[in-house]
């Protein structure tokens, strides 16, 4: 009987046949901590009697949620983590590089076939390069830092097969919002979602990251795209490794198979207050918006900014709409700068901020007042997540966000 | 980082049993996310007692004011979805909540809860439990009793039970020098 890509990753790692449902103490290839969950993880590491982390080269540390330190508390947290990094010999990207998941992939810290953990739920994004990656809490992270291994219940896999060509102004974010609406907020709990099919094969790395990033929004433990030419091309210059085959066997046992065709897919918008509330943009077009956020690990890459700039053209954003644009990393920011996007956004009336999580988690700036509405390219629209519990967050692609920012109301990007 | 040391190193599961009789129920619905349990703006706090002051702030303000040691949270499906913040179970623990009963749990919350010493218990009949009701749990026999009605609860996975028996993951890991990698546990 064949195996799924996830079963193969665990089996390779342990050198024995491992199947979904089995609970295995598995070595990890890397562990990521940031400024929100990191301090507690370090504290737990110490409480567990940890003295030296399992391998400083495999620990990734950076600050992205509350940077530059936006409170005395945040400043102390950064200081605490810096000290730990120096003591342990961990390379700390500090506040310089951007949002954790984007940085992990850009710096080649995750690779095909690897097992990665991160103290952040969107760690599942590293599945875009064919890694098995999952978000964990701080105590599990303390354990992982001490032992370089963690208990995993090897998940079953939902195989998603996508075919068809996207219409203009429709892409990966619309696809994943539609899939989330179909599978539901808990439809993939404890399972992995494997993205396959012609449409995925043609999808660039940015789009694959968007899809895998949001696997958690269906409760999934991981999202994964089998490594192919696009993946190995992305890994070039990031990690010295020879391409190898890694894919599910056709006769593997899947929890479920789902097929989607994107040919008729409209731009999607997830309405408040759950991510699985995706609807075609036409259903909510005309909704007044106060703020637009283009950024986050989900959609803050150069490709997203370019998509927004193309919709914008030489026009201006709506005068009554606050537009925040935050590239996901220093690299993405530089690409946007070098290609004139930042200048165009600023001239159009947007605030372009330095790479960070921004208003996505509502822990820092860009918060919403009661009654306000934000259209966001991020990953969650939970009640209160971006400020007041009486505010409303809608999720969409960068194209839809840009078109709507121009009109001051939710707008179909195909119509501007 | 809060200068105050957390009070939860040696947590409760072990001393849970005396607290499982006639506990007050706080009823919540489906898809209760960790942003609702503890909003992002409070995540610079790591102390459970301090976190508890902001639990469900903005969505159910009376909770933080009135929650008492031993109270139980009842959820619908997908309890604890969203962010991996361990501050969520810690905020509940700080308020004295040691048990959450729900139809299903989001994966990361489920693990975090066990790791910090809040017991997540799966019960498919939480619709039959009203807010404010008194609940008695018999974890060994596997049932919850509300208003004289017995409701079935699911047992915990054996490998998780090991962590629970140790009193949480910290205690489990404290005296281990290394772990047996690539060994399979019972499911």
Structural commentary:
The complex is a heterodimer of chains A (416) and B (187). Chain A is an alpha/beta fold. Chain A folds into two domains: 257 residues, 2-Layer Sandwich (Aconitase, domain 3), CATH 3.30.499; 148 residues, Aconitase, domain 3, CATH 3.30.499.10. Chain A contains 14 helices and 17 strands. A five-stranded parallel β-sheet of chain A has the order 15-14-13-16-17. In chain A, strand 2, helix 2 and strand 3 form a beta-alpha-beta unit. In chain A, helix 11 packs parallel to helix 14. The longest helix of chain A has 17 residues. Chain B has a single domain, classed as Aconitase, domain 4. Chain B has 187 residues and is α/β, with parallel strands linked by helices. In chain B, strand 6 and strand 7 form a beta hairpin. Chain B is built from seven helices and eight strands, in the order E-H-H-H-E-H-E-H-E-E-E-E-H-H-E. The chains are: A alpha/beta (416), B alpha/beta (187). Chains A and B meet through strand 1, helix 2, helix 3, helix 5 and strand 6 of A and helix 5, helix 7 and strand 8 of B.
**Class by SSE composition of chain B:** alpha/beta
CATH fold node name of the largest domain in chain A: Aconitase, domain 3
Give the CATH class of chain B: Alpha Beta
Distance between the termini of chain B: 37 Å
What's the arrangement of strands in the largest beta sheet of chain B? 4-3-2-1-5-6-7
- From the spread of the alpha carbons, the general shape of chain A counts as globular
Average pLDDT level of chain A: 97
Number of domains of chain A: 2
Query: What is the H-and-E element order of chain B?
Result: EHHHEHEHEEEEHHE
Key traits:
heterodimer; A: 416 residues; alpha/beta; Aconitase, domain 3; 2 domains; five-stranded parallel beta sheet; four-stranded parallel beta sheet; 14 helices; B: 187 residues; Aconitase, domain 4; seven-stranded mixed beta sheet
């Amino acid at each position: 009987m064949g195996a799924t890509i996830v079963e193969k990753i665990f089996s390779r790692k342990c050198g024995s046949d491992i199947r979904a449902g089995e609970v295995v103490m598995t070595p990890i290839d890397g562990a990521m901590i940031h400024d929100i969950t990191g301090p507690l993880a370090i504290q737990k590491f110490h409480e567990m009697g940890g003295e030296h982390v399992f391998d400083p080269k495999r620990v990734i540390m950076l600050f992205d949620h509350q940077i530059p330190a936006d409170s005395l508390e945040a400043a102390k947290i950064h200081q605490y983590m810096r000290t730990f990094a120096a003591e342990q010999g961990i390379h700390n990207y500090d506040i310089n590089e951007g949002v954790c998941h984007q940085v992990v992939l850009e710096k080649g810290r995750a690779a095909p076939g690897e097992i990665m953990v991160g103290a952040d739920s969107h760690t599942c994004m590293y599945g875009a390069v064919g890694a098995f990656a999952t978000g964990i809490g701080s105590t599990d992270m303390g354990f992982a830092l001490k032992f370089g291994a963690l208990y995993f219940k090897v998940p079953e896999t939902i195989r998603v097969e996508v075919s068809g060509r996207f219409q203009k102004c429709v892409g990966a974010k619309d696809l994943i919002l539609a899939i989330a609406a179909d599978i539901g907020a808990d439809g993939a709990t404890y399972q992995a979602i494997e993205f396959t099919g012609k449409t995925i094969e043609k999808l660039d790395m940015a789009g694959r990251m968007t899809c895998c990033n949001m696997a958690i929004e269906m409760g999934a433990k991981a999202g994964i795209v089998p490594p192919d030419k696009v993946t190995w091309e992305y890994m070039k210059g990031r990690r010295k490794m020879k391409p190898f085959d890694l894919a599910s066997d056709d006769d593997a046992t899947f929890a479920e198979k789902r097929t989607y065709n994107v040919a008729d897919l409209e731009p999607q918008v997830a309405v408040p207050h759950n991510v699985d509330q995706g609807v075609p943009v036409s259903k909510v077009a005309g909704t007044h918006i106060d703020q637009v956020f283009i950024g986050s690990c989900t959609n803050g890459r150069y490709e997203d900014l370019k998509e927004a700039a193309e919709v914008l053209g030489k026009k201006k954003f709506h005068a009554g709409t606050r537009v925040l644009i935050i590239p996901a990393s220093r690299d993405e920011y530089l690409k946007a700068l070098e290609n004139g996007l930042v200048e165009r956004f600023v001239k159009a009336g947007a605030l372009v901020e330095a790479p960070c999580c921004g208003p996505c988690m509502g822990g820092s700036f860009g918060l919403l007042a009661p009654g306000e509405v934000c259209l966001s390219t991020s990953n969650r629209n939970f009640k209160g997540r971006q400020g007041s519990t009486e505010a409303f967050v809608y999720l969409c692609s960068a194209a839809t966000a840009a078109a709507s920012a121009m009109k001051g109301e939710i707008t179909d990007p195909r119509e501007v | 980082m809060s200068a105050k040391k957390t009070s939860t190193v040696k947590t409760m599961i072990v001393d849970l049993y005396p607290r499982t009789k006639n506990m007050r129920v706080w009823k919540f619905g489906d898809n209760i996310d960790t942003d609702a349990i503890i909003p992002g703006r409070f995540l610079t706090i790591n102390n459970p007692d301090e976190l508890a002051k902001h639990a469900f702030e903005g969505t159910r303000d009376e909770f933080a004011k009135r929650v008492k040691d031993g109270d139980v949270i009842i959820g619908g499906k997908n309890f604890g979805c969203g962010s991996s913040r361990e501050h969520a179970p810690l905020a509940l623990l700080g308020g004295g909540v040691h048990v959450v009963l729900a139809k299903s749990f989001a994966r990361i919350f489920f693990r975090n809860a066990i790791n910090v010493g809040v017991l997540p218990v799966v019960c498919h009949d939480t619709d039959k439990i009203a807010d404010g009701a008194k609940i008695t749990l018999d974890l060994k026999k596997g049932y919850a009793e509300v208003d004289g009605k017995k409701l079935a609860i699911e047992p915990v996975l054996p490998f998780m039970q090991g962590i629970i028996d140790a009193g949480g993951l910290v205690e489990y890991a404290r005296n281990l020098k290394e772990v047996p990698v690539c060994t399979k546990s019972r499911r």
